[in-house]
# Entry
Amino acid sequence: MTLHDLALAVGNSGVGAWMRSNLHAMPVVEATHVLAAATVLGTVLVVDLRLLGFTDRKRAVTVVSREMLGFTWAGFVLAVITGVMMFAANANTYYGNTAFRIKLLLLAAAGLNMAIFNLGALRSVVQWDLQQRTPRAARVAAALSVLLWVSVIFVARWIGFTKGYDFAVPDNVDLDLTIP
# Structure
């Protein structure tokens, strides 16, 4: 099975059909996706700004990180779920969209950056946890994280203007809005 076959299968799934046939699905799912993404970006920024030394210099990095981590993962999981739902609504179009592909690459790069940070600089956090100036590797990872996550947001907005919406109303959707 190719990636294109997988995309088509997602588009032909029950979720895809539901997203296309329910008049209110896309606005609600998209709004939820935006709120989830804002949660991810906001909580990541809190930790990254601490690592960069701009905020909370007197608080341990581990404390700030621990306070944000649950919110970050909850927002990320919700963003993935709602993102898959939006993808399912028009999978073939998203699959061929350059901005969508760039967003996925940026997300992968952000995940790789996080993994490298966790396997590298964070392993020695007990040595620098309360220092106002974190090690260079931690600052580089934080700066790269900010750059990548802000790029994800910019490219995500680009998707909405380049995906080629199909405004045709499906046959099974009743748009009779008259009030009896």
